[in-house]
Design a protein that fits this description.
single chain, about 450 residues, alpha/beta, Aspartate Aminotransferase, domain 2, seven-stranded mixed sheet, three-stranded antiparallel sheet, globular, binds pyridoxal-5'-phosphate
């Protein structure tokens, strides 16, 4: 960092300690802010200097000095298919999240499918799911032959609105698939109470929630099973990979058997050698994937802590900017994973500047951002699934009528979040330092101050 850059950073830091939000919402421009304005006055999208020119921390991380030895050892051994290293990774993951058992599988999507199938969810069943989620949550339900039933989102937390779950329960409801989306925990106490009352299975989609906690208990350990993803972009990246965790040994034995063609394992099919009894598939990961996972796992605790510290600080720095409402954590959350840092954008406070233009302007200032998910509850893949041979045979015609399905699955709060309000910053941004968080706040503020001009010129 050169001297000028260094003093600029110091200046930004001091300025943010004064509280940019306060300065701006009161409408008075302090001399400190005016000085910043000199340097960053013209929005970058209109040709000015960006607030931030440095790049954000790279993802995934890889340290040849500490990470490669184990991987090379595996590669040179020629033992590449599932063996001791995969078992070591599974034991480590189980211990890390505080579950009795973990099973590594090819990806998060198949972790969910396997868990649902081995909990006896299938054709003719309904599975209640968050509407604000990644396509994989819903694809996994459909793959089992079950019907996804969407519950609206609490826009403050971005999580499933647990108060709206019970009204969706029917005689066909078999399971709830809450998603800890963005790495922020869903209301598991309420969800587990509903499940208990109605005798439903709970599979947690914790594919974005590594090490997130409610009352210091890790996500993935509240339900009958918890599922994780280790895909390249995730906070524990292997490239591809996933895991199921549970305390239920008999269930985990069946999952193991299922992930290995249904071959005998533990208690699942009785005596080894009795033949393959479970209808299985193959979901095994390789030894070198596990070696990569073990390397990544060494960093996860510290990185999670850094993301929490930076997210909390960034939230405090932007919460008073009019038109910006950062995420709220559910009650009793002691830690989040922050796969993403979400806030809601209100264009009315930005002179009517549409979210799309806000995102462009913020990106131009050097801040990575996106609008996030689209509503899944009205996408064409559902209609396609309902027209499939399996669905046609498993459900009465009236359940497959697409327009009445759409009617039953409306999620207006989720629509508003997806179409108008949500803004995400990616997790790698939260691995930078405190002055970098100040730059984000400054960039948002800069866009707000220039919103009218930006809106008329782009
Ligand atoms: C990534 C993800 C999945 C699926 O994981 P893959 O490993 O990509 O199959 C499922 N649910 C959520 C919420 C995810 O983010």
């Amino acid at each position: 960092m050169n001297k000028k850059e260094n003093s600029r950073r110091k200046f930004i830091k001091q300025n943010s300690l004064l509280g940019i939000g306060t300065i701006v919402s009161s409408g008075s421009i302090s001399s400190a802010f005016a000085a910043i304005k000199n340097e960053t006055g013209v929005p970058a999208i209109l040709g000015g200097k960006p607030v931030r020119t440095e790049s954000w921390p790279k993802w995934p991380r890889w340290n040849p000095a500490t990470d490669e030895e184990r991987v090379l050892e595996v590669l040179r051994s020629g033992v590449w298919s599932r063996n001791k290293v995969v078992t070591e990774f599974e034991n480590k993951w189980a211990e890390t999240v505080g579950a009795k058992r973990a099973l590594a599988v090819v990806n998060g999507t198949n972790a969910i499918i396997a868990a649902l199938v081995q909990l006896n969810v299938g054709g003719g069943d309904e599975v209640i799911v968050s509407s604000y989620t990644f396509i994989a949550s819903v694809a996994a339900i459909l793959a089992t032959g079950a019907m996804p039933v969407f519950v609206d989102t609490n826009p403050e937390t971005f999580q499933i609105d647990a108060s709206k779950i019970e009204e969706k329960i029917t005689s066909r409801t078999r399971a709830i698939l809450p998603v800890h989306i963005l790495g922020l925990p869903a209301e598991m106490y309420k969800i587990m109470a509903i499940a208990k009352k109605h005798n439903l299975i709970v599979v947690e989609d914790a594919c974005q929630a590594w090490l997130a906690e409610i009352d210091h208990k890790k996500m993935g350990t509240f339900g009958d099973a918890g599922c994780f993803s280790f895909q390249n972009s995730k906070n524990l990246p292997i490239g591809e990979g996933g895991a199921i965790v549970s305390d239920n040994e008999e269930f985990m034995d069946r999952c193991y058997s299922y992930h290995n063609y249904g071959n005998p394992y533990g208690s699942s099919v009785g005596v080894v050698g009795a033949g393959t009894i479970i209808a299985g598939t193959k979901l095994r990961i390789t030894e070198y994937q596990a070696a990569i996972g073990l390397a990544q796992l060494k960093r996860l605790e510290e990185e999670t802590e850094t993301r929490n510290i930076n997210a909390t600080y960034l939230k405090s720095q932007i919460k008073d900017i009019r038109g910006i409402t950062p995420y709220k954590l559910n009650e009793n959350v002691t830690r989040a994973a922050f796969h993403l840092f979400p806030f809601r954008y209100n264009k009315d406070e930005f002179g009517g500047l549409p979210r799309e233009k806000f995102l462009k302007a913020l990106s131009a200032e050097g801040v990575s951002c996106s609008k996030g998910y689209s509503p899944l509850n009205k996408m064409p893949f559902l209609e396609n699934a309902f027209q499939s041979k399996n669905f046609q045979k498993m459900y009465p015609k009236k359940m497959l009528d697409y327009s009445s399905y759409l009617e039953r699955n409306q999620c207006p709060a989720n629509d508003k979040l997806c179409y108008e309000e949500a803004v995400w910053l990616p997790q790698n941004v939260l691995l930078a330092g405190k002055p970098d968080m100040d730059e984000i706040a400054l960039a948002i503020e800069k866009v707000r101050k220039n919103a009218n001009e930006i809106n008329s010129k782009i």
